[in-house]
Design goal:
This protein has 19 helices and nine strands. By secondary structure, the chain is α/β, with parallel strands linked by helices. The strands form two sheets. A six-stranded parallel sheet has the order 6-5-4-7-8-9, sandwiched between helices. Strands 1-2-3 form a three-stranded antiparallel sheet. The longest helix is centred in the N-terminal third of the chain and has 26 residues.
C-alpha cells in the first residue's frame, strides 16, 4: 500500500488505485443528490418521486453523455462498434450529460402531470454542481483544468445568486435556460483552447446546449402563464362561521363543563387547530370521537342554520373566477357531506369542481395531504396551484405542498400570526383575489 504515489492518486493498493477524480466525482454526486432532494421537498414532492426522477435522470445522464461523445468521435467507433459500450475509455460529453437529463425529465414529467420547467429548475443546478465538483479532482491530471473549475465556480455563482432569487419578470425555466447557455459556453471555451485533455475539440455539443438554453428562454418568455387551480379553505374563508363555531363549542362547554370557563381567550384559540385537537385539549376527560359527533350533530341542527352567511364579496368573486375559466375546489377539515350541505344553503355549490372533506385524505393541516390529494382527484399536478385560507395552518399546509398561498385576514387578531407564516400574498377582502391572480409569476411557493 502506498499513499500519494503521484499527484492524481490518493492511495494504491495492490495495483488498484483510488484517484482524486473518482473521490470528487462520488462527493459531487452526493452533494448534487442532497441539493436536488432539498429542492423537491420545497416543491412538495415525496422522496419517492425524487428517487424515481434521479434514477431516470442518471440513466439520461449516462446515455446522453455517451451518445453525444460517440457521435462526436464516430470516426473511431465506426471501425469497432462494440467500443460504444466500453465505458472504460471514459468518453462522456458534459453538454450531452445535461441534454440527456433534460430528455429524461421530459419523459417523466409528461407521464406524471408535473411541470417540466419547474422540475428542470430543481434538478439541473444540482447536476451542474455535481459535474463542477467532479472536475476538481482532475486538476492534478491536467495543468489547465483549474481554469475550467474557476469558470464552473463563476457559473454556479451566477445561477444561485443572480438567477435563482425571484425578481420581477422571472419565469419558470429561466434557471435551466441560463444553466444550459453557461454550461455550453464553458465547454466551448474548453474545446477551443484544449483545457481538458479528456474532451475533444468538437463544438457540436456545446453549441447545441447553448441553442437549447436560448430556445427554452425565448419560449418561456413568449408563452402565457398557465392559469392555476384555485383551492380554498371553507370555514372562515368562504363561510363566515365564527359565530356558529363559537356557539358549537359553547354548547359543548355548557354540557360538559361550564359556560364561565369558555373565556374570550379560549374562543380565539378554537380557530387555531383542527376540531379533534381542540376537543382533546379542552375536554381531556371526555371521548374525543363522541364529542366530535355531538358537535357535528349540533351543527346540522336548526340551532345554527340562521347564524351563517358567506363572507363579503364571496359570491360575486367566485362567479367572476368561474366565468374566467378557473378550476375551483375546496380542501376542508369538515366532512364532505357537511361542507356540501352548507355550500348548497349558501348558493355557491355550483362554482366548485371538487370538495375534499377530511375523510378523503390521511393527515390534517398543516400536512399538505389534503391539497395534494385534491390535485390527484382533479388529475392535475400541484405545480400551478393557489391555496386560500384564513388560518396559520392553511398557510403552512400550502407551503408544505409547495403551492402559492394566500392568507385571508378576516380578523385583525390573526394578522401578525398569518404574516409570520410567510404566505405569498395577503388579502384583506375577498374581492382582492382576482387582482392577485392577475400577477405574472408562477403559482408555486417559490414563485417560479
Amino acid at each position: 500500500m502506498s499513499f500519494f504515489p503521484d499527484p492524481s492518486t490518493i492511495v494504491n493498493i495492490g495495483g488498484v488505485s483510488l484517484k482524486w477524480s473518482l473521490l470528487t466525482t462520488v462527493l459531487g454526486c452526493i452533494l448534487g443528490f442532497l441539493m436536488i432532494s432539498r429542492n423537491f421537498r420545497k416543491n412538495g414532492y415525496k422522496q419517492t418521486t425524487t428517487d424515481d426522477l434521479l434514477i431516470l435522470s442518471g440513466a439520461g445522464c449516462i446515455i446522453g453523455g455517451r451518445a453525444v461523445w460517440v457521435v462526436e468521435n464516430w470516426h473511431s467507433y465506426s471501425l469497432y462498434a462494440w467500443g460504444i459500450l466500453e465505458f472504460s475509455d471514459g468518453g462522456f460529453d458534459y453538454a450531452g450529460i445535461l441534454l440527456g437529463i433534460l430528455v429524461a425529465i421530459g419523459c417523466y414529467t409528461f407521464t406524471h402531470r408535473m411541470s417540466y420547467r419547474r422540475t428542470c429548475d430543481a434538478i439541473l443546478p444540482g447536476a451542474i454542481t455535481a459535474i463542477a465538483f467532479s472536475r476538481i479532482g482532475k486538476i492534478p491530471e491536467a495543468e489547465n483544468m483549474w481554469m475550467i473549475v474557476a469558470m464552473d465556480a463563476v457559473v454556479l455563482l451566477i445561477l444561485y445568486f443572480g438567477v435563482r432569487p425571484f425578481h420581477e419578470g422571472k419565469r419558470r425555466g429561466d434557471m435551466t435556460s441560463v444553466a444550459l447557455m453557461l454550461a455550453g459556453i464553458v465547454q466551448l471555451i474548453s474545446c477551443t483552447f484544449h483545457l481538458d485533455p479528456s474532451t475533444n475539440s468538437s463544438v457540436i455539443a456545446p453549441s447545441l446546449a447553448m441553442l437549447s438554453g436560448l430556445g427554452m428562454y425565448l419560449a418561456t418568455h413568449s408563452l402565457p402563464i398557465v392559469k392555476p387551480v384555485v383551492l380554498f379553505d371553507f370555514d372562515g374563508t368562504l363561510m363566515d362561521s365564527e359565530y356558529l363555531v363559537i356557539n358549537g363549542f359553547a354548547y359543548l362547554f355548557k354540557k360538559h363543563r361550564t359556560l364561565e370557563e369558555f373565556t374570550r381567550e379560549i374562543q380565539r384559540e378554537v380557530f387555531l387547530h383542527p376540531l379533534r385537537e381542540e376537543l382533546a385539549r379542552l375536554f381531556p376527560e371526555e371521548n374525543t370521537e363522541v364529542l366530535a359527533r355531538e358537535y357535528r350533530n349540533y351543527m346540522k341542527g336548526i340551532q345554527g342554520r340562521h347564524l351563517v352567511e358567506t363572507l363579503p364579496h364571496v359570491r360575486e368573486t367566485l362567479k367572476q373566477l368561474k366565468d374566467s375559466g378557473y378550476v375551483l375546489g375546496i380542501v376542508t377539515g369538515r366532512y364532505t357531506d357537511s361542507c356540501m350541505m352548507w355550500l348548497e344553503d349558501l348558493l355557491i355549490d355550483q362554482y366548485f369542481d371538487i370538495v375534499a372533506g377530511t375523510e378523503t385524505y390521511r393527515h390534517t393541516k398543516p400536512s399538505p395531504d389534503g391539497i395534494l390529494h385534491t390535485c390527484e382527484m382533479l388529475k392535475v399536478g400541484h405545480d400551478s396551484v393557489v391555496y386560500v385560507g384564513d388560518g396559520v395552518k392553511d398557510v403552512q399546509a400550502g407551503r408544505n405542498a409547495g403551492v402559492y398561498t394566500v392568507a385571508f385576514v378576516t380578523n385583525e387578531d390573526k394578522r401578525n400570526a398569518l404574516e409570520k407564516a410567510s404566505p405569498n400574498a395577503v388579502m384583506n377582502s375577498f374581492d382582492e383575489l382576482p387582482e392577485i391572480l392577475s400577477r405574472q409569476n408562477a403559482w408555486s411557493a417559490d414563485l417560479y
